Amino acid sequence: MDDWDNTMFLMFFVLLQCMNRRNVAGMAVLEAAAAMPTCLSGLSSTLLHLTGAVMHSMSLADVLGSVFISRVDDRRRVWVLERTGGVWKDLQREGGKHKKVFQRFCRLPRPLFNEILAHIAPHIQRQTMNWRQPVPAVQKFACALIRRATGGYYRQSVHGLGLGLASVLRSNIDVADVLIREHGHLLQFPTGQKLQDTLDVVERKGFPGCVGAIDYTHVYIEKPAGQRGECFYDRTGQFSVVVQVVCDHECRIQSVFVGCPGSVHDSRVLRVSPLHREAQRGGGVVGTGGEVLRGGRTIGRYLLDDAGYPQLPWIMTPVGGNSRNEAEQVYDDCHTSAWSSIERTFRRLTFVWRNFIRTQIANMKTLRKEFMAICILHNLMVEHRVQVDP
Predict the structure, then answer these.
(1) Where does it localize (predicted)?
(2) Is the dihedral of CA 362, 108, 345, 272 positive or negative?
(3) Using CA atoms, how far apart are residues 99 and 93, in angstroms rounded to an integer?
(4) What are phi and psi of 239, to 5 degrees?
(5) Which of 89-98, 151-160, 296-305 is predicted most confidently?
(6) For residue 149, which of 354, 301, 313, 322 has the smallest C-alpha distance?
(7) What is the full DSSP assignment across 230-279?
(8) Is 135 left (phi over 0), alpha (psi -120 to 50) or beta?
(9) Closest to 390 measured CA to CA, from 104, 129, 47
(10) How many Cβ atoms sit within 10 Å of the Cβ of residue 369?
(11) Which residue has the higher pLDDT, 9 or 149?
């Protein structure tokens, strides 16, 4: 097909040059004839024939030019497929019920959407090129939110948003990188008054010195290429990656660790996580500070975890078992009540951002970025008290 186009272009160029030379010759003859005396016989018929030849050449050049332009335009439509962008046009409407439609697709209310966009737009907006216009930053941000909220595949989103497949892939990566760089401070333990508020709330539930709850979940992936697949084969018979999350009483995520294969036990994930290394060095929120009990005894800060994990100085687990006495039963009930915030966090993550319900492509670098970006968006929604309607 490319050879045929090159041949057609060459033929068109040769014909055009020939016709230009012919037109130049015809105009020269016309000028010479105009300079001659008008009394000569047969001059009018000669001028008429020369004019017809010139007009015929010009019409032939116009026809060949239109054929060539049509051919090039057809090739362009294959290179850049024209799309209507119907969903994106609907999301740009404002007022009335359009606010609910916008939040149903993007999960964020429009004021919060615009606030986040103002911070990340300078970092995701590309420059104008000679051959095409860049994708607007607002459209890239909305595309990333819609895919993570609906859990659809890339090819299901490109036509409705008026974007190409490559543009959607780059948009998701760019948005995730900028969110982590600009709002990554949201994924850390609180300090100052916010930390004290968390300690006070959990203390009223019977756990003074507790700064949060920790648990683990699995993100299912396709069989990794070029790696040992059995390492990612978990107890449910699927390929997955383990995610460690720490949250507070308001389901605000404080720490995230992604990347261990699905066959690794949760206690092993804890030992290799940065949180464990920091606590062992005596740093971080669990390695510094403490609380004074009513009897005058001082205890360090700690996290709540479920049964089956090691009892560390900064990890408190339930007693469990069938031989518990009354005091241990009360302790376990209080532990379950305080630790349930992490379960609510996981439920809200999968309810709002449904992208991680389905099986992911086994690209660990992109998977970590996307999960951390979703946790950042989750914290922003918690901070602004955003209620999501399914």
Answers:
(1) Nucleus
(2) positive
(3) 8
(4) -90, 130
(5) 296-305
(6) 354
(7) GGGB-TTSSBEEEEEEEE-TT--EEEEEEEEETTS-HHHHHHHSHHHHHH
(8) beta
(9) 104
(10) 19
(11) 149
Domain positions in the chain? 2-79, 86-184, 189-359
Residues 2-10, mean pLDDT to the nearest whole number: 59
What residues form DSSP beta bridges with 217? 243
User: With pLDDT > 90 as the criterion, what percentage of the chain qualifies?
Assistant: 27
pTM for the model stands at 0.76
Report which of 117, 113, 110 is spatially closest to residue 95, judged by C-alpha positions.
Answer: 110
**Contact between 314 and 301 (Cβ < 8 Å):** yes
For 241, phi and psi rounded to 5 degrees?
A: -125, 140
Torsion of CA 303, 304, 310, 312, to 10 degrees: 30
Q: Is the dihedral of CA 224, 270, 198, 338 positive or negative?
A: positive
Q: Which pLDDT band, with edges at 50, 70 and 90, does 258 fall under?
A: very high
Q: Which two tokens stand for residue 214?
A: 């920790």
Q: Quickly count: other Cβ atoms within 10 Å of residue 80's Cβ.
A: 10
Express each pLDDT in 166-219 by its tens digit.
888 888 899 999 999 999 999 999 888 998 898 899 988 888 889 999 999 999
Torsion of CA 261, 267, 271, 272, to 10 degrees: 10
> Residues 136, 167: contact at Cβ < 8 Å?
no
Half-sphere exposure at residue 279, Cβ-oriented, CA atoms within 13 angstroms: 18
DSSP 3-state assignment of 47?
helix
Report the 10 Å Cβ neighbour count for 29.
16
Average pLDDT of the chain is: 80
Structure tokens at 313: 């100085």
Spatial contact of 140 and 177, defined as CB atoms under 8 Å apart: no
pLDDT tens profile 37-91? 555 555 556 555 655 665 666 666 666 666 655 655 555 444 455 555 567 777 7
Q: DSSP string of 114-154?
A: HHHHHHHHHHHPPPPPSSSPPPPHHHHHHHHHHHHHH---H
Contacts of 241 (CB under 8 A, 6+ apart): 218, 219, 221, 232, 258, 259, 260, 261, 262, 364, 367
Listed residue (222, 220, 219, 198) closest to 209, CA to CA: 198
